[in-house]
């Protein structure tokens, strides 16, 4: 995703900015980073959701690891419900996890809308 975003940035912007005397760091900070911000935000959001959803690989490989070192949220919920039969606490964990994911999506959506409003010239 980031490579596609980098390839979509016009080289004319970099050339014009270098003619004005900008350094490589200034080009990155003022051209590359602002134009890649939507792709970075979406990539981080996907990785965040995937981190909450990983279960099978850790369950098969380590089962939570030595002393819970590799235990993730989904594996903890599974062991709470299936191993300890604590359905109420497990349901509460699922709801809290869902709310955290919804909050992350809402923040990402807010930031994307703010970026679009800033770049389109409207408020």
UniProtKB/TrEMBL annotation:
It is found in: Cell membrane. Pfam families: BPD_transp_1. The chain crosses the membrane at residues 31-48, 89-112. Residues 1-108 form the ABC transmembrane type-1 domain. Its main location: membrane. Keywords: Cell membrane, Membrane, Transmembrane, Transmembrane helix, Transport. It comes from the Bacteria. Gene3D superfamilies: MetI-like. InterPro entries: MetI-like (IPR000515), MetI-like_sf (IPR035906). It is a multi-pass membrane protein. Belongs to the binding-protein-dependent transport system permease family. This is ABC transmembrane type-1 domain-containing protein. It comes from Nostoc cf. commune SO-36.
């Amino acid at each position: 995703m980031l490579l596609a975003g980098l390839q979509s940035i016009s080289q004319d912007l970099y050339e014009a900015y270098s003619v004005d005397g900008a350094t490589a760091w200034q080009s990155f900070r003022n051209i590359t980073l602002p134009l890649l911000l939507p792709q970075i935000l979406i990539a981080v959001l996907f990785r965040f959701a995937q981190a909450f959803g990983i279960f099978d690989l850790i369950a098969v490989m380590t089962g939570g690891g030595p002393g819970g070192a590799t235990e993730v949220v989904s594996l903890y919920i599974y062991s709470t419900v299936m191993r300890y039969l604590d359905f109420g606490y497990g349901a509460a964990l699922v709801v809290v996890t869902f709310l955290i994911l919804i909050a992350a999506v809402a923040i990402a959506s807010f930031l994307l809308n703010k970026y679009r409003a800033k770049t389109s010239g409207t408020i």
